[in-house]
TrEMBL record:
It holds the Pfam family Ldh_1_C. The active site is at 179 (proton acceptor). Its EC number is 1.1.1.37. Residues 3-146 form the Lactate/malate dehydrogenase N-terminal domain. It comes from Penicillium alfredii. One of its GO terms (cellular component) is cytosol. InterPro entries: L-lactate/malate_DH, Lactate/malate_DH_C, Lactate/malate_DH_N, Lactate_DH/Glyco_Ohase_4_C, Malate_DH_type1, NAD(P)-bd_dom_sf. Substrate binds at residues 82, 88, 120, 154. Belongs to the LDH/MDH superfamily. MDH type 1 family. It catalyses: (S)-malate + NAD(+) = oxaloacetate + NADH + H(+). This is malate dehydrogenase.
Amino acid sequence: MVKAVVLGASGGIGQPLSLLLKACPLVDELALYDVVNTPGVAADLSHISSVAKISGYLPKDDGLKHALTGADVVVIPAGIPRKPGMTRDDLFKVNASIVRDLVKGIAEFSPKAFTLVISNPVNSTVPIAAEVLKAAGVFDPKRLFGVTTLDVVRAETFTQEFSGLKDASKATVPVIGGHSGETIVPLFSKVSPGFQIPADRYDALVNRVQFGGDEVVKAKDGAGSATLSMAFAGFRFAEAVIKATKGEKGIVEPTFVYLPGVAGGDEIVKATGVEFFSTPVELGPNGAEKAVNIIDGVTDQEKKLLEACISGLKGNIEKGVEFIKNPPPK
Ligand SMILES: NC(=O)C1=CN([C@@H]2O[C@H](COP(=O)(O)OP(=O)(O)OC[C@H]3O[C@@H](n4cnc5c(N)ncnc54)[C@H](O)[C@@H]3O)[C@@H](O)[C@H]2O)C=CC1
Ligand SMILES: O=C([O-])CC(=O)C(=O)O
């Protein structure tokens, strides 16, 4: 039995993500929670003739508690998206407390659930989630993930003309670091099957992966950021976690984790100096089984990208940790 929960289920990401989870035969029960509109979204999805039993909750009548009780996988796309001219960090003011409060609910009602954080800024919201779980005494680093899959999906898509693959998702194009601008580091030297990026296209391609989110924000012109591609990516990662819990072997996806709590993570902390980092992670029945170090042997160009990534990431992580350890006055 797998119970999946979406917190922020009525939003631009939440609705298509809930649709994909409702259609997934691996999901037996799906609970939707949001501050608005969940009864309608749940009623709509309930007419779909798939396996998952669906329910929708609002904050009233202990909605969060009922949504989370018995959860195996909780996906969080709650919070405001960017408008043109904003950075992801500009979302911190609003989204930090949204994520904090939802994760407090997870700590109380479903402390063993796999928690997948989509809400931006991921570089800070995941450290916030970790600190909340730590404070409640229920933090298991193998069960907390920042969802950076959209960066990987973009990298696969934007390199398709070089990989030559009809189905770009069949390529492995590792993207590591964090999830904003220069903290996003595609490792084109580590693609498989091996293919070459022409030198004169390298900078533009790196930039497109790092700032792919801006492309969508600009095109939506004030109506939000990536939602459909994010729902695809969020579902891909959630499905990978679910398949791994069911015993499927060999599933490796980049994700933003607390490295000291994951096997192999210390080596990456030593190499990067940061404790939260997105790296390919082998998934298993208990979540993040192993953090794979793919930094060794990167090119000089990639080393430079990593330096910029790490200096940006440090501040983002610190900001999230501080938000819980030394909360701002109300
Ligand atoms: N990790 C990633 O790669 C990506 C992350 N994002 C982020 O995902 C978040 C959501 O984006 P959209 O779905 O486009 O925004 P949206 O505004 O369309 O939806 C957000 C939903 O969250 C709900 N919400 C707000 N406060 C809540 C609370 N306390 N509890 C439960 N639900 C609450 C809202 O009612 C709304 O339905 C944003 O922070 C965005 O930046 C977006 C794309 C990619
Ligand atoms: O750009 C944004 O704000 C949303 C996001 O994280 C992405 O599309 O990668």
